[in-house]
Design goal:
This protein has helices spanning about 1-15, 20-65, 70-80, 90-145, 150-160. With about 160 residues, it is mainly alpha-helical.
């Protein structure tokens, strides 16, 4: 990451250095390109490794979505997101394509989780409403219920 940051800083400094005579620019540009190419040559294997690692992570999530229960899918998605950051970034388009693919998969997992949570909450709300309705009926039942002969005898003894 430090090398990548240094390259980015050098690239920015190169652009902002100001105008140079064409005759002087040609050898400077050659040296800059040679240095940049040497760095890129050393970073290329790591860049490829990171690309493959994240492609495999996406495949792992796809496999989990197809075969695992939702809690396992959520765990896989969270782990992949946590470990996503590459040591060396690839080309911007490749990076964006990988990220968009991952986001789409993660969004489907988390939307499914949210839908299940919403369904569960709705069922719980119905249960609460049913219990509340039962509680609301109890006082009315108390006044309309006639005591049984045993209850009348108990009341008579209590009163005596």
């Amino acid at each position: 990451k430090a090398v990548e940051k240094s390259v980015s800083t050098a690239r920015r400094a190169w652009r902002e250095a100001g105008p140079v005579n064409h005759r002087d620019m040609k050898p400077l540009r050659k040296r800059y390109d040679d240095a940049h190419d040497a760095i890129e040559k050393r970073l290329a294997p790591e860049r490829e490794r990171e690309l493959r690692r994240r492609q495999l992570a996406i495949k792992s999530l796809e496999n989990s979505i197809e075969n695992d229960p939702l809690p396992k899918q959520i765990d896989v998605a969270k782990r992949i997101q946590r470990d996503w950051a590459p040591t060396v970034r690839g080309r911007r388009r490749e990076e964006q394509k990988l990220w968009d693919t991952l986001r789409k998969l993660c969004d489907s997992v988390f939307e499914q989780r949210n839908a299940e949570s919403k369904t569960r909450r709705a069922a719980q709300d119905e249960s609460v409403a049913a219990r509340q309705a039962t509680l609301n009926e109890l006082p009315e039942l108390r006044h309309t219920a006639k005591p049984t002969s045993d209850e009348a005898a108990v009341k008579a003894l209590d009163g005596a």
